[in-house]
Specification:
The chain is an alpha/beta fold. It has 26 helices and 25 strands. About 5% of the residues have low confidence. One of its GO terms (biological process) is regulation of DNA-templated transcription.
Length: 676
């Protein structure tokens, strides 16, 4: 028989009196329910042990509330159905077989249940305490109710210091709406957010926080918060982002980042129905500096240029390094074209200031192309394409200029694309040929050398200037093929002319810096000489200063090997680069060619005269022959002879000619009467 009792009492003696009046049997199972609203937990535990001595098969259920309904609910959770309840002392014995049958619990089952509960509690406590993440709980007012060891280790605060304190007061973040998240959690919604907190070391750490409502009977009773320190992860992510989106040399946003920002800017402008401008800025002839100083030094120059640009552009401007020596700029809203033109002029002036670098004074210039949203492009691709078209137009004008995009430039862009496409097939379609321009000895008046010049006769556009297609050939990697073709055919042509009686004629062949730096270049020269049968002493290789003065052991070694073969080496366009006497002394060269820009305005009292005179003196002092190119008048020839110039080349002698016309010119022209 299972018996159930509900009893309200004040002390143990009172309970003993009740037990003495009853006939309790030790082999019966008793379920005793008691309301003990003003008893301490230690007293209740003593009471339980006391009762178990008398009733070893009993189950003892207690509540701590004066409220009758709350006490009844507590009893009912253990299976009680109905009992009378009084706050005053009351003896009540009820044989409730139905209720006892429903409980059907033994003392051992109860003890096992208690053990299981304690195990679960200990298990949960162990997990929480040993978690590396910070864990704490708060009441519905946001006050701390517990913290784990990781929390204490991270912030140096335990529950003793935090008990009753609001967790919200320890958060100072303008970016994260903490209160809003907390209210959601109180309403039973789990929330996740990122939060920066100051840890006990004084450092700012980043945590990913989860606020989880603790629900009992569909009612939120507490908030469980777990936070993981992701500071290292965020640092790695930022580092990876910097690698992916920022240029390593200038620290500026790269092309990918610029494109992303531009797309956002377009969305903003589209929504606001506003306009803005973008600028593409590219350094003029920066390749010369790279070839002369090397790419590492060139990168240092770019850093200086980036700082100069940043010092000029207004606040709110977005600056990036688009690629190579090209910078991209997004101007602030409301910047009109006139203001941009003024800023552009300031940029050009700032960039043109002397650069003192590695004991040298260098000068660089820049070109600027500008496009406007939305008139010059409704998306990022079109807007950048048109800014680039304007930039190319500025460079074609000679550089150091600013050009706003105009619709006609698109035609030029498509023409360039067509040129690039056609250039790839120009050789196999027999569109390329070599023109030869005479170089005359000023002392004898005789033909000494001729320069082999590559020409392209396009079937649609006609003759395309080398200055237009050679840079494209370099960009797309065709310069090696074209260069070798010119080298082989020029050597072969000279050998044929020698055999026809034009004795001692030599040929000058222009060599691109790309060709010269190719590891197979020496072998290509040998093959050309073997193929043609031309002696090496009749071949002059013309290199620009930038190609020759990339002062590396490989470059010097290449020149020395060519010199040992008997090949002559000339510096082309001398005076336009950054060469110096110290460089020239170390290089095995034979000729200097004075750039035509110094001959154009060549007069006795001109600045050009002084420069040409200095070059002559320096060249002859080094034992070199000097060639003046671009000679167009008898007066220029007279002055050059006075300065003891060794050779002349230019329209005054003759324009570049096809092989057939060159032969006709040679046999029909009286050079002595023309020159003297």
């Amino acid at each position: 028989m299972i018996k159930s009792y509900t009893y309200t009492y004040k002390d143990k003696n009172d309970l003993l009196d009740f037990m003495n009046t009853q006939n309790f049997a030790s082999n019966e199972l008793y379920v005793i329910k008691a309301s003990l609203p003003d008893w301490k937990s230690t007293e209740i535990n003593q009471l339980k042990r006391f009762l178990l001595n008398f009733l070893p098969n009993s189950v003892f259920i207690t509540v701590h509330s004066f409220n009758k309904e709350e006490a009844s609910l507590t009893f009912n959770r253990y299976g009680s159905i109905t009992e009378s309840f009084n706050q005053n002392k009351e003896n009540h014995i009820e044989n409730d077989s139905a209720m006892a049958d429903m409980l059907n619990i033994t003392t051992n089952q109860y003890i096992n249940l208690s053990k299981k509960y304690n195990e679960i509690k200990e298990y949960f406590f162990s997990i929480v305490e040993n978690m590396p993440d910070i864990i704490f709980t708060t009441d519905l007012n946001g006050c701390f109710t517990s913290v784990n060891t990781a929390f204490k280790d991270t912030f140096g605060l335990g529950i003793e210091e935090l008990k009753g304190e609001s967790a919200l007061t320890y958060v100072s973040s303008k970016d994260v709406p903490i209160k809003r998240y907390f209210i959601k959690a109180v309403r039973g919604i789990t929330v996740q957010f990122e939060l920066n907190l100051i840890v006990k070391t004084g450092d700012l750490a980043t945590f990913i926080m989860h606020m989880i409502p603790i629900n009992v009977q569909d009612k939120t009773v507490e908030i469980f918060v777990i936070g993981r320190n992701i500071t290292k992860q965020r640092k790695i992510e930022k580092k990876m982002e910097r690698i992916a989106y920022y240029d390593a040399d200038t620290k500026l946003p790269n092309r990918m980042k610029f494109d992303e920002i531009l797309q956002k800017r377009i969305k903003k402008a589209k929504k606001a129905n506003s306009e803005f401008l973008i600028i593409f800025l590219d350094l003029d002839r920066f390749k010369t500096i790279n070839d002369m100083l090397g790419h590492k030094s060139g990168d240092k120059v770019l850093k200086i240029v980036a700082k100069r640009i940043f010092s000029v552009i207004p606040k709110g401007t977005y600056l990036g390094r688009f690629s190579g020596d090209k910078f991209s700029i997004i101007m602030p809203d409301g910047t009109d074209p006139e203001a941009v033109m003024q800023i552009g002029q300031e940029l050009l002036q700032s960039i043109q200031m002397p650069l003192h670098f590695e004991n040298q004074e260098l000068y660089v210039s820049a070109s600027i192309g500008i496009s406007t949203y939305p008139s010059d492009g409704s998306d990022n691709v079109e807007l950048m394409k048109n800014a680039d078209a304007a930039l190319n137009h500025a460079k074609q004008q000679g550089g150091s200029s600013i050009v706003f995009f105009a619709g006609e430039m698109n035609k030029e862009t498509w023409q360039r694309i067509e040129i690039e496409r056609s250039l790839r097939k120009a050789l196999e379609n027999n569109e390329l040929y070599i023109a030869y321009q005479p170089i005359i000895n000023t002392k004898t008046g005789k033909l000494s050398t001729c320069e082999a010049l590559l020409r392209w006769d396009h079937p649609e556009y006609g003759l395309i200037p080398p200055i237009q297609f050679i840079p494209i050939a370099e960009e797309i990697g065709l310069i090696h093929t074209f260069g070798n073709w010119v080298l082989n055919n020029a050597c072969k042509q000279i050998k044929e002319w020698q055999e026809k009686g034009i004795e001692h004629l030599s040929v000058s062949v222009n060599v691109s810096a790309f060709q010269f730096q190719n590891k197979h270049f020496i072998e290509e020269v040998k093959k050309a000489l073997d193929y043609s049968g031309l002696e090496a002493k009749f071949l002059h290789l013309e290199l620009t200063e930038s190609a020759m003065l990339n002062h590396t052991m490989e470059a010097i070694n290449t020149m020395q090997i060519l010199n040992e073969l008997g090949v002559n080496i000339s510096i082309d366009d001398f005076g336009t680069g950054y060469s110096s006497l110290s460089y020239l002394k170390q290089l095995p060269i034979h000729r200097l060619k004075i750039d035509r820009s110094f001959i154009n305005h060549f007069k006795t009292d001109s600045r050009e005269y002084a420069i040409v005179n200095a070059i002559m003196t320096m060249g002859h002092g080094l034992g070199l022959k000097v060639v003046a190119e671009g000679v167009e008048t008898k007066e220029q020839l007279t002055l050059l002879k006075k300065l003891k110039c060794d050779y002349i080349q230019g329209y005054f002698v003759e324009k570049p000619m096809s092989p057939k016309k060159f032969e006709e010119w040679y046999y029909s022209t009286d050079l002595l009467s023309k020159l003297y």
